[in-house]
Structures are given as structure tokens and as C-alpha cells.
# Entry
Amino acid sequence: MADISIIGAGSWGTALALLLYRNGHRVTVWSIMEQEIEMLQKEHEHKEKLPGVKLPEDMEFTTDLEAAVMGKDVLVLAVPSPYTRATSHKMSAFVKEGQIIVNVAKGIEETTLFTLSEIIEEEIPQAQVAVLSGPSHAEEVGRGIPTTIVVGARKKDTAEYLQNIFMNEVFRVYISPDVPGIELGAALKNVVALAAGIADGLGYGDNTKAALITRGIAEIARLGTAMGGKWETFCGLTGIGDLIVTCASMHSRNRRAGILIGQGHTMEEAMAEVRMVVEGVYSAKAAMGLAEKYNVQLPIIEQVNEVLFHGKSAAEAVGSLMLRDKKIENPLIPWEE
# Structure
């Protein structure tokens, strides 16, 4: 049995807390919001973000960050990506040398273009940072629906240790050393999911969705490999797998926000209606910064930025994508002479 703290009591943190408890571990859940912790202590259910998923009576809930962090075997960092740096900074004073921290949020920091693991390593240099990602909506994991994910870590023994902690009969865990590839796939798919939602909001169909998923993964892999990620990762669970589920499911906050934008709502209105952090909005600008840095073309993500931040209509953005210069689908495949 491991002693584990979940730092962040949103839907994903809550679902993982229940998963780890069912695996036989001692679990503590931390939130900065007193009202949230009081609700969890009283109701043993996150009524707003994970309704219907009951938590055990002996699960611990706290707003005391020091108590949540110190002496734990594993810390699962589950705060939304915009709060990763601030939370990591607050945690650092309580983190022991060699502490395993598993980041389960998805995003890229706009100001530094850092992945979330890079932020954590900068703020908590004494920690061993791993990542967990894949096609895994909290609403389904909380209900015990079969799910498969990937744990990424630089050291194989760390990855195997976490594989054993998280894996059970409904939650299959693969391991990988490609931490940057996993994180980039996870962050950038949220931006493509916004595009897929926008297409849905415009009333487009399955052909459009398939095109966005297919060309979207091409953009993600193009940038990801330029940054050191492995092509195979983008063909796997945290690449095409996560992209499919995020573009297709109504559990996806990014797709839901995109639908509203496609229907004519502003970005701010869409985010307010979804009532959860829409990670793709925060990653969209950062993705364009990375594209410029690595000299990579990201036409879908570029048009998402135009709609989100520059007043371009969704219909005009689709037109810009469809009328781009003619291209070869895969320039690496040779023609007959």
C-alpha cells in the first residue's frame, strides 16, 4: 500500500483518488478551496464536477498543503494547467529529495513555452517528475469504465512503480520514456478539439471531423518530433488516441467550448458556460509560439488562434483551411519515375 496525495480536487483528481483508493492505497485529496473540501467531507461526492460518483467515508480531504505533501510516497498533481506553476511553487518547501510527482494535467505555459513537467522541475528541482496521460475522461474513469493510459518517466523503474500503483482490471497502464512526446500530444490535442467543436457548432458533419482529427495529428506530430518527441508516441494513446476521444466526446470541455464558439458565442462566453478550465484556450497561443520557435506550420491551430483571439469568424477560418495551397499528403512517399 502506498500513501498518496492528490493535489487538486477537480473531476480528474477526484476520479483518480477513487481509482487509487480502490487499488488499496491510502489517499488524501487536497484543494485550495475550503468550500470544495467541506463539500467533499460532508457529501463524499463532488456534486458539481463528478456527480454520481461516491467517495469512501475514510478518504481524507484537506486544505493543508504541508500535511498533504509531506511524507507521501507519491504526489499526483491534478490542478488545471494555468495553476501548475503557482501550486508547484507553494509545494516546493515541503517536497523531499527524490519525491515522485505525477502530473496529470495537460497544457503548455504561454509565457515560457514550457511543458507542465518542465514547470514542475523548475519549481521543485528535488522531485522525480512523471506524467500520466491518454484517452481518459474523468466521468468514465470514476464509473470504472475500461480505460487505457500511458505513464511517462525518464527512469524505467519509476515508470514501472507507477504502473503497479495505478493499474487494475479496468485501468490498463502502459509505460514510456517519451515524456515530451506524451505531454505535447496531450496539450495540443485540446486545441484541435476546439476546432472539432467549432466545426460541430457550424453544423458540419463526420467528413469534417475526420479531416480535423487526421490533419490535426499530423500537425501535433510535426511539432512534437521537431521538439524531440517520438513519432511512435503520436501514433499511440497520448497522440491519436487522446485526440479521437477529445474531438468526439461531449465529456470534452474543449469540444463543448468549440461548439459554442461555432454557434456564435465568444471565447469568454463559451468558457463561462462550460464552467471548467478549457485547457485548449491556454495552449493555443503557446502552440503558435512553439511553431515559430521550431519553424513548423500548424494551419489548423493557427486558425483556432485567429478565431479565439483575433476576431475571425469560424466560417472564415474553415474557408482559409480549405483554400490553402495544394499539398502532397505525405511527401516522404516516393513517386514512380
Remarks:
- The chain has a mean pLDDT of 95.
- The CA atoms of residues 44 and 56 lie 7 Å apart.
- The chain has 16 helices and ten strands.
- The longest strand covers residues 128-133.
